[in-house]
Structure formats: structure tokens, C-alpha cells
Amino acid sequence: MNGSKTDSEEGVHGASGSEKDPLIRFRPKCYKGIRLQPETTHMSLKDKHKWDAKYGVSEYITGREPCEWLQHNADLLTGQGRALDIAAGEGRNAVFAAEKGYEVLAIDISETGLDKAHALADQKKTKLETQVVDLDEWKFKKNAFDLVLCFNFLDRRIFHKIKNTLKPGGLIFCETFTVDHLKHSDFKREWVLEHNELLNVFREYHIIRYREMDRDEKAFASMVARKKNDA
Ligand SMILES: C[S@@+](CC[C@H](N)C(=O)[O-])C[C@H]1O[C@@H](n2cnc3c(N)ncnc32)[C@H](O)[C@@H]1O
Hints:
This protein is of the alpha/beta class. It has one domain (1-231): Rossmann fold (3-Layer(aba) Sandwich). Helix content is 29%, strand content 25%.
């Protein structure tokens, strides 16, 4: 599933990187076309460097196949309309949605990851649109997507934006680590979901399928939910 070695060792949104990095010391307003807020520059650049370095190898560190949760619930995917993959990484889930027929936008702070997402789409004879963005400040359009995917990325500050960008009637797939994962890793508490947290965040949605698992030293929650038409 999602829990590649990479995920479990360093967290889905964890920081690393050197404090000696000149980009971090000078805190630019803009880096490679991404506008950066002063208060988010430090963490975002660290994340960018960390993920660019991880993805800068020839193999796909998270694999070429979609997360099991997406694959196992593919019966819910109509393939109609637009899909957004948030923090898409190397694109395994975005490419799967494109193969199902969606017009997919894959966004991530790592250009290296998104380059690999394009290469994967080519291999699978499909297409993606990608954007290198910092989710700390990306402007989510209201009611813009029929499908939203968010795997192995947790930033509670953007939950309301994610909800807003889904069209009424649209589907959201979410999966990431839970508090039970802390016994398997040195993740910070803020990087993991509380029990039932997704159920609470999406309480006005129709929760179609939900599970919490703790297996093979990975503990995570997975949800697929539909935004109600009157939302
Ligand atoms: C664990 S990976 C998950 C990748 C993908 N969702 C998957 O499951 O294969 C987390 C991703 O979050 C991205 N990320 C971290 N901070 C970000 C930010 N501020 N803005 C956009 N993407 C970010 C990283 O570049 C990385 O690709």
C-alpha cells in the first residue's frame, strides 16, 4: 500500500534538510516559479529539497501501481470529468485516474516527482496535467473537480480548501497514517490522523467506505466519500 519505506521512515510531511542551505537562509519570495510566503518558505523549501532528492533516482520509490485503496474501490470511479491529485509525488494514483478516463491535474512541490509522473503516464499511454505548487498557498478553485485524491499527505490547514474544491456529487479518496503508526515510527503526532478524524472532518459528506488498519507495521486510515449535492 502507501507505506513505502520512504513514507514510514521520514513521514508524509516531515522535515529534513540542511540548515546551511542558502535558499533556506536567504528565504526568497519566489523559487523556480513558486511564490513563497515568508512564514512557509522555510518548511516548504525543506520539503521540496527533501522530496526532489528522494525522487531523483531512476526507480519509482512509491511504485508505479496505484495505492491499494484506490485500486480496490475503482468500481466507484466513473471516469467522467476532472480529477485532482494532491501531493501526487511520482504520479501512481494520478496516472491510474487518467487511465480510468479522468482529465487529471497532479500537483506537488517536487518538480522531480512530477517529471516522473509524466514519464509514467507516457509508459501507460495516458496523459496528465501537472503543476509544481506549494500547497501552503495554492489557490484551490471552488467546485472544480469531480474526483479528489489525497494519499499520504496530511495538512489540516487545507482540509476546508480540499472540501471546497470538490464539486457537489464528487468523490474524495483520502488515506494516510494514524496515531497507531506512532508505535512503528518516529513520526510527529501532527503528521498522523487521530482515530476517526476523517469521519469527523467529512461528517457532512456521504462516507461510502472507511477503514482503519494496523498491519505490517503500518497503521493508516482510508476513506472514500461523496460530497452531497446540496453541500
Ligand atoms: C509521501 S509523498 C506522497 C506521494 C503520493 N501521494 C503517493 O502516495 O504516492 C508526500 C508528497 O507531498 C509533497 N509535498 C510535501 N510538502 C508539500 C507542499 N508544501 N506542497 C506541495 N506538495 C508537498 C512531496 O513532494 C511528496 O511528493
